[in-house]
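Task card 7
Instruction: Convert sequence to structure tokens.
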Amino acid sequence: MAALGYLSRRAPAEWVVRILLAVGTAWCCYGAVTQSLAYAIRATSPERAHAISAGDGRITALLSELQSGPEATSTERTRSDMLARAALRQDPTAVAALATLGLNAQIRGDTVSARQFFIRSERLSRRDLRTRLWAIEDAVARGDTVGALHHYDIALRTSRSAPDLLFPILASAITDPSIRVNLARTLATHPIWADSFISFAAGNAPDPRSVANLYTLLDKARVAIPDWSRSGLISRLLSAGDADLAWSYYRSYSPNVSRDTSRDAEFQISLVTPAPFDWNIVESAGTSTSIQRSKNGKGVFDFATSPGIGGPLLRQTQMLLPGDYVIEGHSTGIDQAERSRPYWTLECSDGRTFGRFVLPNSTDGNGRFSGSITLPPGCPVQNLTLIARPSEDVSGVQGQIDRIQLRPAR
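Output:
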């Protein structure tokens, strides 16, 4: 009762003040909540965000960007201009609004105004992708390759969506020698997007020859190129019938290789993803294959197959000249009837087979083996392949090869 009496004695003016403060607090809370909600949905639904918070310059700028898309009509562009100008009144730092005005001016053919808007946008921020794309196009139109690549670099450094848009364009552009040289210089500065683009170009550039030329420049600049990028490029060149360039590029980064012999006779080279000209393990169901290190530190190819299972185990692409060749090496652990022993074969890339050498059991000749193969003219690319034959033995076929070489007969 005392409390009720105390409340009843409050002056009316005090009640008015308290009510106004409560209303003001509620209004501020409402404004903060709606502002937060609008900003949270601005990227996925700029129209709703603008309806909730029409006075936010950043949201108004995003809506102006939406209205100025590539399929926008002239009426929509006029509305986007109005929204962009309103955004700048609300927030003079609304970069997206400046980019909208610049894009619309450019589409209307007003290059002078477009340049002014985009220059203002760039001064405020380097992160707006539309501003960067315009700068790239402007540099290209002026024949400024270095400037265009500078803007490519900035866009790819500052925008997460830029690689999806710009990598295909850049990978197509490297057919131009001038762009290729300047791009190699840019990549030599190790931008954060360098590794991604190098790998992208290997598998996606329209012209693999240009990629090979770019990679050669990068090798000279000592820019690291992943194994899988090199091997992917060489595979593409071979598939495209560009075997000579494939071999030339492989030789450029592989010291002491020779075209007239197989390579890595003792399995010393360890690569994450070998090129076709390196030893490639063939994996299939029912087989176990691997290149390991032996006790003496040398490499060894280890293989095993399940009973009744056969097929290719190991392969290396060759570019031998026509002539007589010797295949020689050393094995351990092979102990099979002749009809079940693995064999080496030299096949043309078109499927023709020119030789077959059945491996002896490892107990014969202390594991050493040697045979001959003749390669006729008309087959510039071949595959040297170790093939397992099905065995009825309960343990299947197993063994190791620690040396293998195909060389010209002397």
